[in-house]
Amino acid sequence: MSRFKTLSILALAMLLAAASSAQAQNQYIGYVYPAGGQQGTTFPIRFGGQRLTDASGLVVSGEGVSARLIDYQRVMSNQELGLLRQQLNELKKKDSSLGEAMVAEMAYFEFPAIVKPPEVEGLMCPACGRLNPLDATVCIDCNANLDKQEEAKPGGANTTDAPELTEIEVAKQNLIERIERLFAEDQRNAAVRAHTEIVFAEVTVDPDAKPGRREIRVVTKRGISNPMAFYVDQVPEVSRKPMKTCQLPVLGKEHLAQRKRPVDEEEVHISVPCTMNGQIAAGEMNHYRFEASKGQRLVISAKARQLSPYVADGVPGWFQAVLRLHDADGNEIAYNDDFRFSPDPIIYVEIPEDDEYVLTINEALFRGRESFVYRITIGELPFLTSIFPLGGPVGEPVSVEMNGWNLDDVALSPAPLDAKPGIHLVAATNDSLSSNYVPFALDTLPECMDIESNDAPSSPQKVTLPIIVNGRADKPGDWDVFEVDGKAGETIVAEVNARRLGSPFDSFLKVTSADGKIIALNDDHYDAASGMNTDHADSYLMVKLPADGKYFIHLGDTRRHAGKDYAYRLRISKPQPDFVLRVAPSRFVMRSKNSAAVKVYAIRKDGYTGPIKISFKDLPEGLTSGGATIGAGKESVGLSVKTSLTESEEPINVTVVGSATIGEKEVVHRVVPTEDRMQAFLWRHLLPAEELPAIVYDPSYKAPADRIHPPIRDEDRPKDSKRTLQKSSVDWYLRQIEGLYQQWFLTDDFANGQIASIEARLITD
């Protein structure tokens, strides 16, 4: 089947699946900011999304990271905003009161802007309250000057004799800040409507949490969202102020939609090592100034596309970040806009002189909005550019060569000896730091190394099938040629794994007979299972041999590039019929005592066309499924699960497997959860997720009206109001007031006053 036919079938199937499950599985988050944090810290984050009403919690994959919900904010009506303005004015009066219940509730709303810093010593910024390193002279967040005599005590408490606020004053300040935050975030004409609901949360990362990628989701009383990437890192972090939801640009007046920020927010002072978190708005460039010493070997790596791999409404389909490094005089000393075939840029630079340096980041086309989130890490940190070989046999130790930067005194942490066949992530570590992760493949076939000189059919490397050859392009224009014996009618497969294992090697394969005749050739082979990969440069051939004799497999790089990073794994074997499975979306959301359905996709390998049985492994009590079967030659099937539960307290991760009898062997594979994502208006991808949660919700759920109004006093009722409102209008106004009251935006006195005022205007005749 051609790549384009496969794409069309998958795209149609994904669209049908999305339509069938849209009603239930519609909680969506478009970004999380910041998209990670340092080990041993607690920090605020926010999500932008839609249909997040009644947010009830958060879940983070892996161990060592916990998150708690702070608040939820939606776009409010003009009537609601008017009520909040009046309430805000009342709160700012000295004699305003909250009531005991309101005081207790506002103690819960400890908003991210005033979350207590971790218990470490430092300098408290008098302007923003941020805790800074003891040697800092300006605040790392707001650039305000710091008084070195005002050191913060553990926990961030300043040593100055500032009067302590009473419980009532703290509660009032929290409510004022909550309402002011709502006005500050309000966007009536958003560029992306799907980002206008905001969830505020707080994340705590344990000191021993494993560095690397996690996934985070928002849980609501009506379901669970898609996952977003979230990173645990090792060095201190700074975060710019969160960006307000961007305004929809108008053709010819796009400048009116651009963010207006003070000049002093363009540049942030940092100390190396550091991870910088930011968001890019349209037309913006962010600057980071730091001091560096001659000879420092700095690795500057950005995560942008890794945080949000696909953007549906823009070309090329992601945030294309650009990094530049300048010296104090403005001379550019380093530049990068991608790292090999990855759109996220990385700079390695040896600092030429003791001086100040400025790092900048922007989007290549100067697009931007709140979902264009980035993380940049800078420091003398270990970084792997490649390993060799790219894999090895299951259960056997492999000696691996590391290439990269700052790799002195580090050792590669290999995949466990009991690891199963597949791709595993490995990193180089020392006593305190870990490098980036790189893929390492494990397989059950025999393996060998590429042996030079095997550059032509006259001097080939003879191999016996089946075999995996680990090799690399040693010189520009290098061809590696392998000789195999074949028989008439026999089918052999030649498959390259390079790009899918992080190698820049851009393969080209051809099979020739002993007389030099080309039997088959291939440049690029599309692999629908590699969801984040858009550069399908690995080659694949399955060819039926015409006669007995010798055959030669030729492998080269199409761009004639070479070097120690240009590694590959070449499988030469008879067909090994197999399959991999994907399920979308990556969650089951079920109504009470009802069911939910997802779509399972089969990506078939080496010509396997047989049926595949799909089933759940160890479903928890209250969930049942009859499974499904992907028919012979078919690409997908619907899979449903039923529940006898009214609701579940929290999501439960489930596992789906697929099995098939291939020859005399029973083959079982886990079905990988995925999200169906569109790239640049057209292309669709199945983006892998780590977990497959299931949740049951009660569709009749209503947020509890647990606040009870005190009696309205006679003196609160207007005496001579004009009766101008019909009952329907009065009911509408009262619903607005009650909604804000139950969400703890309004005090008892203010709400009762508004209710009395509205009721007094009811037309009674």
Structure summary, number of beta strands: 50
Average pLDDT, rounded to a whole number, is 89
| Low-pLDDT runs | 1-24, 112-121, 148-160
Assign an overall shape.
globular
How is the main sheet built? 9 strands, mixed
Given helix and strand content, the structural type is mainly beta
Named CATH architecture of the domain at 447-574: Sandwich
CATH class term of the domain at 447-574: Mainly Beta
Give the helices and strands, then pairings.
Layout: H1 3-21, E1 28-33, E2 36-38, E3 42-50, E4 55-60, E5 65-73, H2 78-91, H3 100-106, E6 122-124, E7 131-132, E8 151-152, H4 167-185, E9 197-205, E10 212-220, E11 223-224, E12 228-233, E13 237-239, E14 267-269, E15 274-279, E16 285-292, E17 297-303, E18 321-327, E19 332-336, E20 346-350, E21 355-363, E22 373-379, E23 383-388, E24 391-393, E25 401-405, E26 411-413, E27 422-429, E28 438-443, E29 447-449, E30 461-462, E31 467-472, E32 479-486, E33 491-497, E34 507-513, E35 518-522, E36 540-544, E37 549-557, E38 567-573, E39 578-584, E40 588-591, E41 595-605, E42 612-617, E43 623-624, E44 628-630, E45 636-643, E46 652-653, E47 655-662, E48 665-679, E49 683-688, E50 693-697, H5 727-742, H6 748-759
Parallel strand pairs: 2-12, 13-15, 14-16, 24-28, 29-31, 30-32, 39-48, 40-50
Antiparallel strand pairs: 1-3, 3-9, 4-10, 5-9, 6-7, 6-8, 10-11, 10-12, 15-22, 16-21, 17-20, 17-22, 18-19, 18-21, 23-25, 26-27, 27-28, 31-38, 32-37, 33-36, 33-38, 34-35, 34-37, 39-41, 41-45, 42-44, 42-47, 43-45, 46-50, 47-48, 48-49
Helix pairs in contact: 2-4, 3-4, 5-6
Protein name: Putative subtilase-type serine protease
Signal peptide: 1-24
Keywords: Hydrolase, Protease, Signal
